[in-house]
């Protein structure tokens, strides 16, 4: 088991940072009957998912930890079925409706309607058989909240039609179903949906918070972690606690010892090194043949499930490290333009390649003007 999962806090009392937010969640957990719909938002790796799980445990008890992975099929159109993976307990369902693509609206409506209209607390009544009967018996004994919970991840990536349908559905079934929404950027969630939820912002942990968490994990794993290395990992992680934990474990494997040196090189992920290599190639040569080779590398990143939005952001940040101030604003403007195109379009490779072509044009013109 990865350390990031092994040492994940199991209850609200175990959370180490954002004390004010933790106290707020504890008060919500102590009065389950008045729990409103919730919207957790904040950057990746800040601890949104962990706090949602801890809140569910405070409301329903240890039963929420007995999870199962279910695959449910929904009829999107007369000729099209969509299969979605859902993580379920006897008290809640967690899913990412964005996995359904353009059919996310049908999935959202079907799941919430199924959860709210069925008495049993098993996957919203979507599962039948002896397992459903056992789940219903246990739920009757231990669920005193009187409702079920649907956890929807990445709601900021839902289409506007799906968000509007979610708003209507949550109003209709608010008496028997609570929604916990989770997203990175709340500005991409429509106002009618945000206004019906209690917003809980989970900010990125500070470098000191990350260092404390790393020290705690190192102590639990009997590892000697120098302060210099902990600070270096915290800075390299971009205030992403999940990433910092993975970096610590990678450093432990690379060192081959329980005593880590202060000057130990912090390991980056393969895809980051791959993008750095791509940036170096583009800076050395700006030509159609270089663009063709860059396209192959972009395809390689996409095939390995690196999101296009992450690729273009990382490309822009790596380019910034090697550019003069005169061209930085043009490159950032181009990156933001094509990031928007990625969000609105369906062919990521087109917009990633267009961004690199635009950068080559900007950089080539800058070099020609400088040496003219």
UniProtKB/TrEMBL annotation:
It is found in: Nucleus. Keywords: DNA replication, Nucleus. One of its GO terms (biological process) is DNA strand elongation involved in DNA replication. The keyword Aminoacyl-tRNA synthetase does not apply. It holds the Pfam family RFC_C. GO terms for molecular function: DNA binding; DNA clamp loader activity. InterPro entries: DNA_pol3_clamp-load_cplx_C (IPR008921), DNA_Rep/Repair_Clamp_Loader (IPR050238), P-loop_NTPase (IPR027417). The keyword Electron transport does not apply. One of its GO terms (cellular component) is DNA replication factor C complex. Belongs to the activator 1 small subunits family. This is Uncharacterized protein. It comes from Chaetoceros debilis. The lineage of its organism: Eukaryota, Sar, Stramenopiles, Ochrophyta, Bacillariophyta.
